[in-house]
Specification:
Layout (H helix, E strand, L loop, with lengths): L2 E12 L5 E12 L3 E5 L6 H8 L7 E6 L2 E2 L7 E5 L10 H11 L3 H22 L15 H13 L5 E5 L7 H18 L2 E5 L3 H7 L2 E5 L6 E6 L14 H17 L17
Parallel strand pairs: 3-8, 3-9, 6-7, 7-8
Antiparallel strand pairs: 1-2, 1-4, 4-5, 9-10
Helix pairs in contact: 2-3, 2-4, 6-7
């Protein structure tokens, strides 16, 4: 399996005089079809990493290669989903999912000729995540979990080579969040798209990922890499296995070591699995 994403000795500074060093000497590799999770303390540069990989921010130094090409600007082969679904309220569920076909080359040039094909693809994804019957509803008629399913469909409808997820389930209740873990995992297993997930939820990282990277506090850099050798498909019972709990605890300890000392009032064993 060859590499889709290669980040080599990347640093990024914000601002002019008195610059803030966001990430430093960042090295990370993601193979084609791999599911990677990135965790770390707040402010460590996880979201900055997302912007660097997708070409929304240029690095101050170092290089980023995606699909064998140096990243010099926004990428067309990426799908993205965020904590806020950001659905357009004046568009139906189906039309929200169809949006990438209207703005992403080469699909926008083919939309008039292939509209029926693209619409069929969008409806297929909505069926896959269990909300096909709500295709004609407006966003305000959907629950938070349903809106996030729409956002996930929109990020995948144009079949991107790379899916970038920035805390996509963080605002949901625990039951809905765990349900969407299974939805995402099932789609990923069927389609094998490369995925980078940024999350504070360590259980989520271990449940979904093949590999988990731990970032240091700012300036962010990779301080640990863990392969997740748990059988797929993973289900709720997986989270009860000793191997699962052991890795979650190890991640928590490593992140705790990166937190500023003023934030270490309690032991890592006393805190939850979200960091």
């Amino acid at each position: 399996m060859d590499e889709l994403v290669e980040i080599s000795d990347v640093s990024l500074s914000y601002g002019g005089k008195g610059q803030t060093l966001a990430v430093e000497h960042l090295d990370l590799t993601v193979r084609r079809g791999e599911f990677v999770a990135v965790v770390g303390p707040s402010g460590c540069g996880k979201s900055t990493l997302m912007k660097l990989v997708t070409g929304l921010l240029p690095p101050t130094s170092g290089g980023i290669i995606v699909a064998n090409r140096e990243v010099t600007g926004p990428l067309k082969i990426v799908g993205m989903a965020f904590q806020n679904p950001n659905l357009l309220p004046w568009r139906s569920t189906l039309k929200n999912v169809m949006l990438p076909f209207e703005v992403t080359p080469p699909y926008r040039y083919e939309l008039r000729r292939k509209r029926a094909e693209f619409e069929s693809r969008a409806r297929g994804l909505l069926d896959a995540v269990g909300i096909g019957e709500f295709a004609d509803r407006s966003p305000w008629q959907l629950s938070g979990g349903m809106q996030q399913r729409v956002s996930l469909c929109r990020s995948l409808v144009h079949e991107p080579a790379l899916l970038m997820l920035d805390e996509p389930f963080a605002a949901l209740d625990a039951f809905t969040r765990e349900e969407l873990w299974d939805v995402l995992q099932d789609i990923w297993m069927k389609r094998s798209f490369t995925t980078i997930l940024v999350t504070h939820d360590l259980r989520e990282a271990v449940y979904l990922a093949d590999t988990v990277y731990v970032m240091s506090s700012r300036p962010g850099r990779i301080v640990a890499r863990h392969e997740v050798n748990l059988e797929r498909p993973r289900r709720l019972e997986t989270s009860l296995q000793p191997e699962f709990a052991s890795l979650v605890l190890r991640l928590r300890e490593q992140i705790w070591e990166q937190r500023p000392r003023t934030n270490r009032a309690t032991s890592p064993q006393a805190v939850g699995t979200s960091v």
